[in-house]
Amino acid sequence: MTAALGAVLCGLAALTIWGTVTAVDAAEAQSRALRLDAVFGDISTAVSVQEMLARHYQLEPSPAGRDRYAAAVAEADAAVERAVTLSYGPALADAQRLRAEQGAYREAADKLIDLVTQRDASAIAQDRLEVTPAYYTLQQDATEVSVRHHELAQQLVADLRRVQTRMFAATAGGFAVGLALVAAIWRVVLAYQRRILHHAEASQHQAYHDPLTGLPNRLLFQRRLEGAIGADSPHRRLAVMLIDMNGFKAVNDTLGHHAGDEVLMETARRLRGVCRDGDTVARLGGDEFAVLLPDAAPQDAEECAHRAVGALRRNFLVPSGSAAVSGSVGLALAAAGACAETTLRHADAAMYRAKTSGKGVAVYDPAVDTDQPRRMELFGDLRALLSDGDPQQQLVLFYQPQVRLADATVTAAEALVRWRHPQHGLLPPAAFLSVMEAGGLELPFTYHLLRLAVEQAARWSALGRPMAVSVNVPPNCLLDEAFVDQVRTALARAGLPPALLRLEITESGMAADPDRAREALCRLRGDGVQVSIDDFGTGFSSMSQLKMLTADELKIDRSFVQDLATDPNDVILVRSAIDLAHNLGLFVTAEGVEDIASLAVLTTLGCEQAQGFALAHPVPPEQLFAECAKAGSTARMMLDPARSGGRAVRPRNC
């Protein structure tokens, strides 16, 4: 027995030593493989970021954009050098190859950046012939290397598990013959192995998850996105949401970084709350989050994006106070054959448009978000024009008369912008407004047009022919702290009575921050400025907001007017809108009137004013009074002679 027990003990001791050494070696090998996996994953991510910032610089060349690109290139170079430093064996060859490919891409991209900065037309050829091939070579190689080392790490985990299994079987046999001492030895060995395995699994979890929120990090999100795109499913419907927090920096600055961490953790909880179980919510870094919807119809994905914006709009309650933070969401639907980088880039472009427009959610639109040379040219010209104050007066306002139906009098006109471009001629709003909105030029653009309209209205007033001028105001202006002062300054400099300025806002313009927008409008109405609710019926504002919004005019959208003479349902909707406006003390203007029959119906329904091609077209200011006379004549022909006692109604202002 003693000899047998000694043999068992010796065998168990040998087994323990062998298993421990093997497990430690496997764990160390796995740890090294995980480090290499993370390093090569960082390279893949850094390459994507520097490419994205290079594309952003093509769209909007600026010193800040170039600095961000240079920082991204430096981060990519640093990631490659870390890989070279940490690598050994075959991995070292991979790292050195990636370093050479990164150098080739950086050289081509730097040349492209210089060409774009110099506005050199050869930038497009440089992008197509050198930058794009170098990027795809680098990105594909980085992805393949990362995947290969990730698979190696997974294989080492499996090897470690097999070692544990073999040790379990051998130790269990020894337990049957080695009595209590062998059992004690087994328990010690097993506990040790579990700690090693737990450490390996914890290391893997840390490599793929954000330590603050517990969400998947950028690397894991990109892997899941690549897997979802590569899934062999003919009916695959995949969407990606990219979310950026608005006002998060102010939380860190005013409430402290601990409060910022609380906001980020609460953001993660809210985003998980609006998503399904199979969706992936990830934190990409800083205050940027992403959501992968692996199987969602476009309508469902857009509804999820709006739910996310709504969830983030509620104030965040943290121990140090209340944080008012919101989110901007860019939504991209994965097209057939698209790669993960392209889909993320599309979502990022849509998110940038959502952020600059203030609308909360934007769906990627190739016609708006794609880097087209013409759009880039228009954006650059418009930005330079606004920066210089438009010395050549390229931005001009046309005016469309608004006819008062009771007596065919024209007392107001809507200002509509045109661009006399030196190369492209007279451009309509549709040709450049989306470029302006996507480029974040809404504030200087609107304030410039406001000054033009006020100055023109002041000239008409000085001639003894006062004319109220309507100016469209986008949502971002209502949230700008300088908005009220801009309006007051424009009125004071031109000497225009405030009652001759009418600001047109949309229903959706009140949605982002209704209290703040309402406060700005109330201050201006207190000065005598008129407020008009534009495009009524197309937004989603609640009746309570409409009740609390102090306004003077309600404009019925053209979509309800164009078929008014033939569609009874439109008649019902327009009558309801007119009754609602009158009950709230507002006068009503119908826009988009394109036929006399609709004009007659509007008069019967009690609509006060109308504008549209049936009455008059938008014209330059010097032609406005002639166009007013034409509009008044058309309206008089429509009016019931009995309403004017059989006499023709003579327009008073025009």
Quick one: biggest sheet?
8 strands, mixed, barrel
Beta-strand level of the residues, as a percent range? Answer: 5-15%
Helix proportion of residues, in percent? 55-70%
How are the strands of the biggest sheet laid out side by side?
A: 8-9-11-12-13-14-15-16
Mean residue pLDDT: 84
Specify the overall morphology: elongated
SS element count, helices: 20
Overall number of strands: 16
Which consecutive residue ranges, at least 5 long each, have pLDDT under 50?
641-654
Tell me the span between the first and last alpha carbons.
123 Å
Rg, please? 33 Å
Which structural class do the helices and strands define? Answer: alpha/beta
Describe this structure in words.
It contains 20 helices and 16 strands. By secondary structure, the protein is an alpha/beta fold. It has helices spanning 2-59, 63-86, 90-117, 123-208, 218-230, 248-255, 257-274, 298-313, 340-357, 366-369, 373-388, 433-438, 442-462, 475-478, 483-494, 514-527, 543-548, 568-583, 596-605, 624-638, and strands spanning 239-246, 280-285, 288-293, 316-318, 321-323, 326-333, 361-363, 395-404, 409-421, 425-427, 468-472, 501-506, 530-536, 553-556, 587-590, 609-610. Strand 4 and strand 5 form a beta hairpin. Helix 1 (2-59) runs antiparallel to helix 2 (63-86), helix 1 (2-59) packs antiparallel against helix 4 (123-208) and helix 2 packs antiparallel against helix 3. The model is unreliable at 641-654 (pLDDT under 50).
